[in-house]
Amino acid sequence: MRGESRVMLRPRQQERRSGPFQKEEAVRRGYDQPLLWAVHAGITDQPLSGSGALSVEKIIYHANYRPREMHYNIALVKIKLPLSFNDQVAPICLPSYGESFEDGQMCLISGWGATVDGGEASVSIHTARVPLLSSRVCCGLGLTPWNICAGFSEGGAGTCQGDNGGPLACQGSGWTLVGAASWAESCGQKNKPGIYTSTSKAFAWIQQQMEKEEQQQH
Fold first, then answer.
1. Which pTM was predicted?
2. Where do the record's region annotations for Disordered lie (predicted)?
3. What is the spatial distance between Cα 156 and Cα 170, in angstroms, rounded to a whole number?
4. One domain, residues 210 and 149
5. How many C-beta neighbours within 10 Å does residue 184 have?
6. What is the rounded distance in angstroms from the CA atom of residue 206 to the CA atom of residue 200?
7. Would you say residue 46 lies in a domain?
8. Which 3 state secondary structure label does DSSP give 25?
9. Are both 69 and 142 inside the same structural domain?
C-alpha cells in the first residue's frame, strides 16, 4: 500500500446513498450485474466520470452469506483486464489461513464513507489508524467466527456508513489485508467498534474461488 491511493468499486450510474447494497437489494435493483459496476484504481477523490474505469467481469458472493446475521459477509470482484502496478497502484498481501495478529496492533482503515451517522458519502478518501481488539472485548456484539473487530473502546476514529468492504490493513514486514469492513452500530462511538470480515478465516474460500476461475480459463 503506497501513499493514500486506493481502489474504488462503484455503480456506473452513481446514486446518492450512504451505504452499500445488500445482496438481496442488489439483485432486486439489478446491481448484481457486472456490467453495472466499474473499478477505479489509484485514486483519492471520487471520480466525476467513468474515465479510467476498469470493467467488472464477475461478482462472486459467498454461498452461505446471510444478510440478517451478516454471516460470511464477503464477495470477490473479478475485473476483465489486469491492473497495471505503479507508484499509485500496488498489491497487498493476504494473510495465511488461520494467521492471527496481536491485540492492540494499530492498523489502517480507509474509505469514502460518511464522517457522521446518517451523513453523505465523502468526496475524498479518509484514513485512520485503529487498534485490533480481542474477541473478549467485542463479545456480545454478535460476532461470528469469521469476524474480527477494531476500534477505540472510548470512541474516536472508526468506519461509518459507506465504508463497508473497505480495508483493514496491518503492517509487519509488509502490508497485509487483515479484514474487510462489514458493519458497525455507529460511527466511532464508545464501546461500538467496527466489525470486519477476517480475510484469514476467509482465505480458504478466496483461494478456492480463484482456483475455480483459473480452471475455467483452461
1. 0.85
2. 1-26
3. 19
4. no
5. 24
6. 10
7. yes
8. helix
9. no
| Whether residues 192 and 211 fall in one domain | no
Q: For the chain, how many structural domains are there in total? A: 2
Alpha helices in 53-107 (DSSP H): none
Co-location of 169 and 210 in the same domain: no
Residues 192 and 179 placed together within one structural domain of the fold:
yes
- C-alpha torsion angle, residues 52, 58, 64, 67 (rounded to 10): 40
Place of cell 469469521: 146
CA gap 78, 81 in Å, rounded: 9
- Tens-level pLDDT at each residue, the chain (218 residues): 333 445 655 555 443 333 444 555 555 555 678 888 889 898 889 876 666 789 999 999 898 987 777 789 999 999 999 998 999 899 999 998 778 899 999 999 999 999 988 889 899 999 999 999 998 888 878 888 899 999 998 888 999 988 989 999 999 878 999 999 998 888 888 889 999 999 999 999 999 999 999 888 77
Beta-carbon count within 10 A of 13 CB:
8
Residue 159 lies in a domain: yes
Q: Which residue do the cell numbers 474509505 mark?
A: 111
Q: Which domain holds residue 139?
A: 105-200
Closest CA relative to residue 109, chosen from 125, 130, 132, 133? 130
Residue 99 in any domain: the answer is no
Examine residue 86 and state whether it is found in any structural domain, yes or no.
yes
Amino acid, res. 108:
L
Q: Which amino acid belongs to residue 216?
A: Q
Q: Specify the pairing of strand 194-198 against strand 175-183.
A: antiparallel
SS3 137: coil
